[in-house]
Design a protein that fits this description.
Helix content: 10-25%
Strand content: 25-35%
CATH class: Alpha Beta
Radius of gyration: 20 Å
Structural class: alpha+beta
Number of helices: 5
Strand order of the largest sheet: 2-3-4-1-13-16-15-14
Distance between the termini: 32 Å
CATH superfamily: 2,3-Dihydroxybiphenyl 1,2-Dioxygenase, domain 1
């Protein structure tokens, strides 16, 4: 063996595996007031309303790096868990939240700095945990690296098996829960809790699969397809114990194929630090990943 081959490092190739979920697209919750939603998500969190789609007053898409919140008008829905968000500057975030606090008085809005993050509750009770960019989030400087869902005690193992065998997605048991790979830099997390689970209210998460038909066939065999949306999309809600068929918990998944017209759509994100008084030409748009090292 020559010296060049002898010096080749041993790479862990498994860290490059993505699994069948190739994209985490959005979290969808209804909101009763689009003006308050704008005040919270755009003015407070510093995120960007999609300028091209859903531009009327009955729905709003909010860009978060390469993911989104979808906010149709209706009775408020609350994710049973926490949405994780990375923003470029936590100090600037806190200043924005201070500015909108009085206008959101009388709602469920709160925020607090805790353990190096900022924990925020939206006007209708959805919880978010905002982080500064960090190595555990890869190159993300603006994005939605995880959604952490509350799950009943004892549910982690059957949920992990469901994702592995039905969706062909990597699912790793962790202390108190599990992690499901949901794209290159994104995960669905489940955290077991002894607290009573609120009734499921219809909120959903959207994922894109490389193998679209295999999971559909397996879900259909078990009677778990809840909606045949169109050629590129279907939905399911129940996560079940594959041995007994019993429902473990419920969260709606909007499942898309890689042929869906919106797959890997480029999203516009703004630099939230710019104002009309403090403006730098050419810097309106914000790049959601860090520059290469």
């Amino acid at each position: 063996m020559d010296q060049a081959h002898a010096a080749t490092p041993a790479y862990d190739r498994t860290v490059e595996d993505v699994g069948n979920i190739v994209e985490f697209g959005h979290v969808n919750v209804r909101v009763p007031d689009q003006a308050l939603a704008t005040l919270f998500y755009v003015s407070g969190l510093g995120l960007t309303r999609d300028p091209y789609l859903m531009t009327s007053t009955d729905n709003m898409w909010i860009n978060v790096g390469c993911a989104q919140f979808h906010l149709p008008t209706g009775q408020p829905q609350v994710v049973r868990g926490v949405v994780g968000i990375v923003v470029p500057d936590l100090g600037a975030l806190v200043q924005r939240l201070k500015r909108v606090a009085m206008k959101l008085k009388g709602t469920s809005f709160t925020y607090a700095e805790r353990d190096g993050a900022v924990e925020v509750t939206c006007p209708w009770g959805n919880r978010m945990r905002l982080h500064a960019p960090a190595p555990q989030f890869g190159p993300i400087v603006l994005g939605m690296p995880y959604v952490e869902l509350d799950a009943p005690r004892g549910s982690a193992a059957p949920i992990a098996r469901f994702y592995k065998e039905i969706l062909d997605s990597p699912a790793t048991l962790e202390e108190g829960g599990l992690r499901v790979g949901a794209g290159i830099y994104t995960a669905l997390r489940y955290r077991e809790t002894a607290a009573p689970m609120p009734p499921f209210d219809g909120h959903h998460v959207q994922i894109t699969l490389a193998d679209f038909s295999g999971p559909h066939r397996r879900l259909l065999e078990r009677g778990l397809i809840s909606e045949e949306s169109d050629q590129h999309q279907y939905r399911f809600e129940a996560l079940t114990d594959l041995d007994t068929g019993a429902e473990v918990m419920r969260v709606e998944h909007e499942v898309r194929s890689m042929r869906h017209p919106l797959f890997n759509r480029a999203l516009v994100n703004r630099d939230a630090t710019l104002t009309n008084r403090f403006y730098s030409p050419g810097h309106d748009e914000f790049t959601w990943t860090a520059a290469p090292a």
